[in-house]
Records
---
Amino acid sequence: MALDKKPFLHGDADLGAAIHERVNASPQIRALVAWEDDVLAAAAATLAAVTDLVPAEDRDVDAFSEKLDGVMSRLAVAYAGRPNVAADRRGAINGALAPILADRIANARGSAELAGVWDAAITRDRALPDMDVGQVGRMNRMLHVAMPPGETVAATDWGATLLLPADEREDGPMRERFGLRCAEIMSQVFRVERADRARCTPVLVRTGAVCDAAQRKPGPLPYLLGLLVPVDLVPKADIQKLKSEFESPVLLLDEAAGPVRLLVNARFQISMTSPAASFTPLFRIREQLLAMIAAHAAEYQTRPGVLKLPE
């Protein structure tokens, strides 16, 4: 999409027109720019909906800001809880408005004049070649994982996936937290052969109720034990996959390390009030995949048991 700068150095050519022409030359770029326009329109409509909550009689220079402050404050308190708004005022408003914005984007109706642009931009949907595992992992990473430093990830964020530090993998801490040594968990729970253990990375995944995370409810934070496993690793054949285990799509988190899957076990949950600095956040699982992990854990942990005699 680069342009030669020489024609524009002395004002001999119209830069704006050249950019417009270059963008329109690619149906795919034009379609994505049109989608961006839809996002901006949805954002404008969301802001208008907020300001519409100010009564008409208060929409004058003197009263409008104060009344709008009241509306925004109520939304912030509703999302984050009164004691937590001051800690992150922007985050409180963002949390309240983001679902409305997402709904408006998802349900926006594209203009008829741009229908042809989308038809020209997406043409290979019926004849796509197969992707290799690395390509699949890259797309899944974009869809399901927020990677630092490009995106903010704190150890206490909902969906934060923390490296289990080496000293916490020692026999004493592991037995205290999980009742098994790290080697036993890898072998008996995640079905990893002894020779493959060094290729796997134990992690903790921050779960719990999203409302507790949003409102910073006091108390210990729940984390599920997980393991990042290379996709080419063959699990032990003599141990059956546990029903408590959730397996993520393929993720390419590190180009050098290669694609992996995240295995999370609903039986192995711990709580920490505040993870130590050594629990490094590796990434944050986005809401769609995290909701599946949380639903899997909740379903497993609340399943009923039935006493059944052999027939």
---
Amino acid sequence: MEDVYRRFSGGWERREELLARAQQKGATWDELRAAESKGIDLAAYVEALEAGASDGDVQAAVAAGILPRVLVRGLKANATPAQIMEAFEKQVAADPGYAWGIGRAGYIDLLNEGATHDQLIVLHDRDVHPEITLRALESRLGIAKLLEAYDKGLRGADLLCYVEAPEKQVDPDEVLAAHRQGLRGLELYSYVRELAGR
């Protein structure tokens, strides 16, 4: 019986601590009760408040289908609640194989790699695959060069070939030049492999 009491009182103390932290961030008792009544995890709710969200931000995110923990990850990646909502609505960098915002090249992962929200919106609107964006960031090529290549006509596999060039110690400008000369797809890929083998 004592063990059950200790477990119950420990859970109660944890809840009291979370409520106190939420109130320090300006949450009212009504907001806390509303969050709990909607089944929002109190720990995630408090983390979101501490990361800079308001009660309204958390409620709106949950109503839209964003898990509070995903909201917290986005806030910690320096996105605002409004940006996270926009990205979620547009399914920016969403991989159907994963929950939104989760996975190697999800929206939040790309923010953590150094992309900005505005850049990700532009890339999404241009249908640049998130994996290509990730490769551009990992290869230190950067988003500006990726967009420049896109503006010069590279798409899909050709764009991937371009962003992978630095990893192969090939000058990306040589990939652009070959593309201008008419190389596409496998021909372009073979040409880059040839350059890398020199």
---
Amino acid sequence: MKKFAFCFALMTLTLLSLAGCGSSSDEPVEAAESTSEETVETTESTEEASDPVDDPSLVWKYDDIENTVDPSSVSISIGRKLGNTNFQELWVLSNEFENAGVFIYADGEQVGYKEESDLQLDTESPISGSHIEEGLHSVELVQYADNDDLNGEIIFYVRTTYEIK
């Protein structure tokens, strides 16, 4: 059931994005109601290509921690609000989380925190400044025991990348 809900949410998000991009109407579009995935792509590792996570130019909050789940089970995408070029939204979609808050880091800096009471997360965090400059960027999703990011044990960790072109 969780996989169905995850797939349904992912398909809905994709269809909504495509529907907004395919509009040829001359009517103005409300900025708060639409997102556009302009020149952004999510990178995924494959056995044949080098993993972008290993790029030495990337900055991480945690350098030597292994993923606790397969990174492909977490979907990361970047969307720009129409009419606002000062920030973009970092979307996170997964049903692999523990029952705890999720700390979101981009390029080694905390950019979001989402309190979660169940195991699925479908949320966005606004990012701006150097996090939306052209190039490859790091993303880390971390959950700590007792939501204690200073002293708590890491109970969930996944790292991946996104690229702005």
